[in-house]
Amino acid sequence: MHAHQASAAAPAINDAQIAHIAYTAGVIDVTAAKQALQKSHNKAVRAFAEEMARDHAAVNDQALALVKKLGVTPQDNPTSQSLASNAAAEQTKLAALSGAAYDKAYAANEVAYHKAVNAALSGTLIPSAQNAELKSLLETGLKLFQSHQMHAEHLAQSLK
User: Which terminus in the chain has less CB density within 10 A, N or C?
Assistant: First the structure.
């Protein structure tokens, strides 16, 4: 019973907000990847960043096509806002670094970021999604982002 009570107490999140959060999370990682491609000279880091930019942009294109089809307008919300402001702070921190220090910090941040996004997807966004197509897109995204997390962990290990 307790789990049900806890979820009932949490503020309900709607599909328009879920779509916004998922999209925002993708944009953040594409932005981080673009910064990495400007700053890093490490082959492995650059390959990882290219994969992030490509995969997250692709999922976001699917998300935009889906919300258009469903006639849903993604709705800004406190979760999206905190994701965005935390990411901006992280970008500023990373911008001040260079060389190996940048590479390590980027990889570590990508591990932490994918962990957080995957936890949000599996714990909140997927269970809360009402629309079956949105839920399915999020589930596909989660599988992809779990593989990103593993890739990020390997990258971070290799840079230690």
Answer: N
